[in-house]
Amino acid sequence: MTSTTAILREIAARLLSSGAVEMVIGFRQGTIPMMNEPCFVRKPDEVGHLVWDSHCGINLANYLTDRKEKIGIVAKGCDSRNVVTHILENKIRREQLVVIGVPCRGMADKRKIAMKCPGEILRVSETATAITAEGEGFSRTFEKADVLQHNCSLCIHRNPVIYDELAGDLVEEQQGVDRYADVRAVEEMTPERRWKYFEDLLAPCIRCYACRNACPLCYCPTCFVDESRPQWVGKGQDPIDVRTFHFLRAYHCAGRCTDCGACERACPVGINMRLFTKKLEKDCRELFDWEAGLSLEARPALDQYRPNDPNDFIR
Amino acid sequence: MSDWEPKIVAFLCNWCSYGAADLAGVGRMEYPPHIRVIRIPCTGRMSPKFFLAALREGADGVWVSG
Amino acid sequence: MGIEPGRLHFSWISSAESTKFVTVATQVTEAVRALGPNTRFIQPPLAEVA
What we know:
Mean pLDDT of chain C: 86
Largest sheet of chain B: 3 strands, parallel
Helix content of chain C: 25-40%
Helix content of chain B: 25-40%
Number of strands of chain B: 3
Number of strands of chain C: 1
Shape of chain B: flat
Mean pLDDT of chain B: 92
Number of helices of chain C: 1
Radius of gyration of chain C: 16 Å
Order of helices and strands of chain C: EH
Radius of gyration of chain B: 13 Å
Shape of chain C: elongated
Oligomer: heterotrimer
Distance between the termini of chain B: 33 Å
Strand content of chain C: 5-15%
Distance between the termini of chain C: 36 Å
Order of helices and strands of chain B: EHEHE
Largest sheet of chain C: none
Low-confidence stretches of chain B: none
């Protein structure tokens, strides 16, 4: 049990027994290793379920949409930015929330670990810098830095941006990270080359919508993929439909995505759809000097008119 | 394809470009016949969906004008 | 997206600027003509259900 887990349980028990919140949203151990699942604790004597380790990649802000009760939410850097986005978009009120910030050192990529192990992983343990996976007849130890999720290795907001409680000391932010190397590579392609590249990228997609469901931004009552009048996009696996889905999904996240990696993590076939959202994130930063979810005061880039907004593309 | 002519979908704002198109018609000005106009209440109604939908239905180009 | 940038145009024309409308309409048509027919993103029409 890491000390963060102990502090989290202590905070959750205090908040629940004092009546400050009716529910704490956190993580508990999943039924298989490296798959921690969201956990909703309503009674102080249930806080023992809560855990914190390198497998808490799910974005818990997803569970706040339109809730009415007072909630304590465990939030790492990206979660807290999505909490801010939720508040700005009036999906929850700040007064309802007690944000339990957890300074984050990055989440492990279960696929990277599984690929490097010869069999099924049955137990996983970790120290501050290393993760050990054990299974039938093998035991492998990895440097945590080598098996981080890609978005975590590029993360520049590891500390929560808003918090009422803090479980652990703030961590040092990564400096000098080149966040957009992959996006630049795609930008440099010719349209033909890019068309082919996306064709290959999206070919395995089975349209399960796991990326949409895992995303804290996707809370429309009726998603455009489910609309039938008009029907914007076919429901099959036609490559054009798949592409339409991915492009429009990405555009819905423009100026809102925090690159938490929930979509990529949820994808059963390992598509890097973060490439699309990151392109929009990069544009927002370059054109509007905007990063999503950093402040409760600033209005999002696409939400606000400024006389100096770039308009060179308009004739 | 020698007899190919472009098919262009134009999304025009009711209050601006649609008015300009109307005025161009009233003034009997000549412009290329490849444009299919869709009037939208305001350019704010424009959505990336419309662009993709136009291409999917076979448009060669899309023109958005406020 | 793999779509040629010249297939999407934006402009701002007031309702009094009919000459600008004609100019831009011509420019847009010429730009798209230069690119040739769109081959991407077109969906084959659904088969008629008998």
